[in-house]
Design goal:
Elements: H1 8-15, E1 22-28, E2 34-37, E3 40-45, E4 48-50, H2 62-69, H3 78-81, E5 85-87, E6 93-103, E7 106-119, H4 129-136, E8 143-146, H5 153-164, E9 170-174, E10 195-199, H6 203-214, E11 218-221, H7 226-238, E12 242-247, H8 252-255, E13 262-266, E14 273-277
Helix pairs in contact: 4-5, 6-7
C-alpha cells in the first residue's frame, strides 16, 4: 500500500491500525484528520483511532502534501487532476478539493488545495460470488453494480473479474487505475491468467479498439456516467460482448435505459447485495435459490 507520502506522524499512526479495516483518510487543512475505520468515521491520534478530536493529528500544508505525493511531477497527473482526483500506485485514489478553475464546463486546473480524501483499495476474494452466479450461470450476461460512493463497487468488480478470468477471456478497462491498481510497470492485483488490462483513455474509444485487438468475452469497467459511457456499453452489447460495470447513479428509471441484463445494488460494506432483472424485479431469495420475484439478499 503506497502511503509513504503521508506526514511521518500520520503514517506512524496509520501503521498502528489494521489496514484491512481502513477505507478512507480525510485531510482538511488545519482540521483533525478523520478516517473511516471498521465502517465508522473516527479521529486519528498518534496511537491510532479515537473518538475525540482532542489530541487528533492535523495537517496544515495540504497543498505541499499533495505535491510531495506526486513525486513523478505534477504534469504526470495533469489529466487526472482535471477530474479532481489522482490515482497512485497500488490503486490509492486521492480526491482533491480547493479552487477549481473551469472552462467550458470542465475543470482545467486545481489551485490552493485545502482538502484530500484518500481512498484505500482492498482485495476481498469471494465477495463477488453471488453476482458471478447470476452473470455466468446461463452464458455470460451483462450486469451493472450500483450504489452511492464508498460501498465497495470497485472491490466487488475486482473479485468478479478474477472469477470470470478463470473461465473466460476478460478485458478490464481500468480508466482510473483502481480495479487492477497497476503501477507504471503494470504490476498490481492478480486478476487471473485470462485477464487483460487496458488503462487510460475514454471508454468508447477504448472499448472499440480493445474489442478488435483483444477479442474479449466480457469487459469489466468502473464508474459509468454520461452519454458517452452509455454508448460504449451499447457498442459492446452490439458486438456480443458482455459488460460488468459499476455506477454511482441510483435512479432506477435512468438505469433501465442501459443495456444490462441484471442490476446489483450494494447497501453497505459487508452488507446486503440485492440483484434485479432488467425490469427491476428481484430475482433471488435469501437462501440463494432462484425464485421469480423474490429478493436476492446475500451477506
Amino acid at each position: 500500500m503506497n502511503l509513504k507520502f503521508l506526514p511521518a506522524q500520520l503514517k506512524a499512526a496509520i501503521d498502528c491500525l489494521n489496514i484491512n479495516f481502513l477505507t478512507e483518510i480525510r485531510i482538511r487543512r488545519g482540521q483533525p484528520v478523520i478516517i473511516e475505520y471498521r465502517g465508522e468515521y473516527q479521529y486519528i491520534n498518534r496511537c491510532g483511532a479515537g473518538g475525540s478530536a482532542e489530541g487528533a493529528l492535523r495537517v496544515y500544508d495540504v497543498d505541499g502534501l499533495l505535491s510531495a505525493a506526486m513525486r513523478d511531477g505534477v504534469y504526470a497527473y495533469a489529466e487526472q487532476m482535471k477530474n479532481a482526483f489522482v490515482t497512485f500506485d497500488g490503486g490509492v485514489r486521492v480526491g482533491i478539493a480547493g479552487q477549481y478553475v473551469t472552462e467550458n464546463g470542465r475543470i482545467t486546473a486545481l489551485r490552493s488545495v485545502t482538502s484530500l480524501n484518500i481512498r484505500i483499495p482492498h482485495d476481498i476474494k469471494g465477495c463477488a460470488a453471488p453476482v458471478y452466479e447470476v452473470v455466468a450461470k446461463c452464458g455470460l450476461q451483462s450486469v451493472l453494480v450500483f450504489s452511492p460512493p464508498g460501498l465497495g463497487k470497485t472491490t466487488l468488480l475486482r473479485d468478479l473479474a478474477r472469477k470470470l478470468a478463470a473461465k473466460f477471456n476478460v478485458l478490464v478497462f481500468d480508466e482510473r487505475g483502481e480495479i487492477s491498481a497497476a503501477d507504471c510497470d503494470g504490476d498490481g492485483y492478480d486478476l487471473g491468467e485470462r485477464c487483460d488490462v487496458v488503462r487510460g483513455g475514454d471508454k468508447l474509444a477504448a472499448f472499440a479498439g480493445a474489442i478488435r485487438a483483444m477479442k474479449p468475452d466480457v469487459i469489466v469497467t468502473d464508474e459509468l456516467y454520461g452519454q458517452s459511457d452509455a454508448e460504449a456499453v451499447k457498442y459492446a452489447a452490439d458486438c456480443g460482448i458482455a459488460v460488468c460495470a459499476s455506477t454511482h447513479v441510483t435512479d432506477v428509471e435512468q438505469l433501465k435505459d442501459l443495456p444490462f441484463k441484471y442490476y446489483c445494488r450494494l447497501t453497505g460494506i459487508g452488507g446486503e447485495v440485492v440483484i434485479y432483472d432488467k425490469n427491476f424485479d428481484i430475482v433471488r431469495d435469501n437462501s440463494g435459490h432462484d425464485g421469480g420475484g423474490h429478493i436476492a439478499v446475500v451477506r
